[in-house]
Amino acid sequence: MVVTTQPALAQDAETTNAVDAIFSPIVAFLDAIFFFKVGGENGFPFIVLWLIVAAVFFTFRLGFINLRGLKHAIQIVQGRFDDPEDEGEVSHFQALATAVSGTVGLGNIAGVAIAIQLGGPGAMFWLTLAGFCGMVTKFVECTLSVKYRRRLEDGTVLGGPMYYLTRGLSPRGMRPLGQGLAVLFCILCLGGSLGGANMFQSNQAYSSIENIFPGLPAWIFGLVLAVLVGVVIIGGIRRIGAVAEKLVPAMALIYIVACLFVIIVNIAQVPAAIATIFTQAFSPEAVAGGIVGVIVQGFRRSAFSNEAGVGSAAIAHSAARTDEPIREGLVALLEPLIDTIIICNLTAITIVLTGVYQDSGSELSGVAMTASAFNTVIGWFPAVLSVAVCLFAFSTIVSWSYYGVQAWIYLFGERSTIVFKFIYITCTFLGTMISLGVLIDLSDYLLLGMAFPNLIGCYILSNEVAADLKDYWNRLTSGQMPTYEQQLAEMTTADR
Fold it and tell me: Cα(first)–Cα(last) distance of the chain, in Å?
């Protein structure tokens, strides 16, 4: 299902066409593999249906852990159960910040606008539902990632779907299947990191900055961005985590406050905006494919926004300092809550109640539509939004470089990672010179394609996760799992 959108960039047409010509055949090939329709011409694209079924299955299989485990997940992130002696490279909060920095950003700003543009306001209902069920998918994949991670002699942690696909399936007599799925995942992860997590981000970052500095050549912006990315990613996960834990919360807070300000100013129209979202979720107007088209856009943009089922966040969470895999899975389920259910909906209500999606027609797309919504109330905020977009894009690019490096290490070994980092930085530069339409498709196909091998492993190992969760929950509720402060207090009392 190839999506056609208007280019969001005002750059040299010949350069754009030349770069597009390179990637268009790749988009067509991936479209035939992952987006063939199930159920006829108006049916669901295979990979979208694959994500829907998995999210619903895990939600019921694990007893709605996204609801009953929410309070405990927040306590974990607050550090109440952190033990400095646990294995890992980053804290629970840093792991969460790194993973969220790979999701919170353009998926919430540009992605929501694209969902509304292509699927109407009703797409947000399905995007939210996908985020709710996706919380459990995140829980499953991140739990498995910590459980089957590898720790090297120097303390470096290697983890992610490629490791639980091999190490988890091998004892079950499925070693060849696990190895094949792991290799496929890594290949798609390399492509996803270079495409949607890199080039799409730099593309929209340039688009936002060009609104402030008209005529700024794409290659100059791309070169500066590429240099900055190179400086950070050389430092590895510790530097990425340190940057993410400071950058992401600050920018997310500024963006949320701005959305709330627009909503408060238009508070009288909020009920009507919410009613429009619900109404058009089931009776869409002028949307290709009718209700199926709206559902597809909602789940597609949700997956791009929070990456539940894709397996990317599992790589970041595998580096967390903990000896309880379930605990890190609980931390991970907060990501779709923050990213999709809260921030994406704030963006959607801002766009719908200001009416810019109707007034602009097809003239505005992605970041430009969201900026137009803010401009109706806060005339100067589009400039701030442009800076926020750049910082969000930067945090996503550096976070995903770690995911790509991990996939590269699995396929080619650690000594050659400098080759991948060079390719990655080059793609950061090229992303500023490709049209948005081609990038949306390339990004979706590569990122969503990762869900195919990843979720096969999650299905096979789901009973194992359910058993581990039952054991963990029993220990937690019976008082066998004291906080770190309680442990220290007990040791102090014992010493006396």
Answer: 69
**What are the structure tokens assigned to 78, written together?**
């607050």
* CA dist list (Å): 282 to 19, 48, 194: 39, 18, 36
- Residue 86, SS3 per DSSP: coil
Distance CA 321, CA 352 (A): 42
Task: Annotate 104-160 with three-state secondary structure.
Answer: CCHHHHHHHHHHHHHHCCCHHHHHHHHHHHHHHHHHHHHHHHHHCCEECCCCCEECC
CA-based torsion, 159, 160, 162, 164: positive or negative: positive
Q: How far apart are CA 206 and CA 228, in angstroms?
A: 14
**Which residue is it, tokens 């990632």?**
145
pLDDT score for 153? 75
Q: Which residues contact 430 (CB under 8 A, 6 or more apart)?
A: 19, 199, 222
Scanning 199-322, the segments in alpha helix (DSSP H) are 200-212, 218-233, 236-265, 270-282, 290-306, 312-317
Contact between 182 and 165 (Cβ < 8 Å): yes
pLDDT digits (tens, 9 = 90+) for 59-101: 999 999 999 999 888 888 877 776 666 655 666 676 666 666 6
| Phi and psi at residue 118, to the nearest 5° | -90, -30
Whole-angstrom CA distances from 308 to 142, 238, 304, 355, 447 are 10, 23, 8, 30, 11
pLDDT tens, 266-294?
898 889 888 888 888 887 664 555 677 67
Q: Which of 196, 105, 183 is nearest to 389 (CA)?
A: 105
Q: Phi/psi at 390 (nearest 5 deg)?
A: -65, -40
Handedness of CA 155, 157, 163, 164 (dihedral sign): positive
Question: What six digits make up the tokens of 476?
Answer: 């937690």
Closest among 450, 429, 345, 395 to 111, alpha carbons compared: 345
Contacts of 98 (CB under 8 A, 6+ apart): 90, 237, 240, 241, 244, 245, 316, 399, 402
Q: Is residue 175 pLDDT above 90, yes or no?
A: yes
**Nearest to residue 425, comparing CAs of 388, 387, 397?**
397
